[in-house]
Amino acid sequence: MIELDRRQMLEGIGALIGLAALPAEALAAAVGKAPSLDKPTTALVTAFADTLIPLTDTPGAVQVGVPAQFDALMHDWAGPARRTAYLEALGAIDDEAKAQTGKPLALLTPAQRKAVLVPYDARNLASDMRYASLKDLIINLYYLSEPGSTVELRYEHNPGVWEASTPMTAQTRAWAGAMPAGKLLVIA
């Protein structure tokens, strides 16, 4: 379990409110700009996002444009300190992949990437806030996309009556909405 203090929680809420307040046109325009990250970093972000949320019966992070959105945020939103923290977190992931396999994360197969990231996640999620914040951002970018919130999650604009006990099956999808504070998805 991650220990969050009030300041970290408020920073996260502020970042999400700021991101949610951006009009869709602004994000779309930013995505259409020339990339601000170099090719190896873009490949690393793409590999990391694809490992966190791969293509299944629903679109994955790469298919909904998470790497381009991340690039746009690094260019137009992130201040120098935040940008540095995210890039350092990505660099640490890449260093781990190189130490274990001799190759950068972007050059590994999906199974090899998962083999590197599962233990890395278990060791660093609770102790490295840069990594936890990076992972949280990638996941939020996915679930803020239209496919993430309407295809991956079950969405009803007006959900109707409250159901005290909803039967869960293999076909049941989670509801779109905010996660409880301090809860992050863990690679399974």
What's the gist of this structure?
This protein has helices at 6-21, 24-31, 39-52, 66-76, 80-101, 110-124, 129-144, 146-152.
**Helix amount:** 55-70%
Query: From N to C, what is the helix and strand string?
Result: HHHHHHHH
What is the residue-averaged pLDDT?
82
**Residue fraction in strands:** under 5%
> Any idea what the shape is?
globular
Backbone CA Rg: 17 Å
Number of domains: 1
- Overall structural class, as computed from helix and strand content, comes to mainly alpha
Main sheet makeup: none
Find the count of extended strands (DSSP E, 2+ residues): 0
Strands, helices and their partners?
Layout: H1 6-21, H2 24-31, H3 39-52, H4 66-76, H5 80-101, H6 110-124, H7 129-144, H8 146-152
Helix pairs in contact: 2-4, 3-4, 3-6, 4-7, 5-6, 5-7
Account of the protein in words:
The protein is an all-alpha fold and 188 residues long. The protein has one domain (6-152). The protein contains eight helices and no strands. It has helices at 6-21, 24-31, 39-52, 66-76, 80-101, 110-124, 129-144, 146-152. Helix 4 (66-76) crosses helix 7 and helix 5 (80-101) packs across helix 7. The radius of gyration is 17 Å and the shape is globular. The two termini are 16 Å apart.
